[in-house]
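go over both lines:
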Amino acid sequence: MTDQKRYAPIIGKLRDAGLRPTRQRIALAELMFRGEDRHISAEMLHNEATAARVSVSLATVYNTLHQFTQAGLLREIAVEAGRSYFDTNTSDHHHFYFENDGHLEDVASNDVVVSSLPTPPGGAKISRVDVVIRVRED
């Protein structure tokens, strides 16, 4: 299979999101979007890129993940100050955060019931509610 055919779905995904398909974006997108939905940190993706012999700095990984998030390809899940994961599943859902080992698991949106929300400040509207349920394994 030629590289052009191999990368065509990824290139299409990037273009559909309004992103220019650069070599680094294509390489990182291929790592991110292959197979099942996943939760990944910038450091985890950088390690995968290094193992796959993709020459990319950690700063570029961070920048690319934020560009993908702004384009709607990823959701950023902030679990604590300075620690975020990026979710390839952009549908409406929530998360369990396992404090012992730092991994995330999806929770279906209909498994969480929020009975009321505060009125947003003037001129603002609620765009989404993200629930992170922190759990600890004994």
Observations:
- Helices lie at 3-16, 23-32, 42-51, 58-70.
- Residues 3-135 form a domain with the Arc Repressor Mutant, subunit A fold (CATH 1.10.10.10).
- The first strand starts at residue 39 and ends at 40.
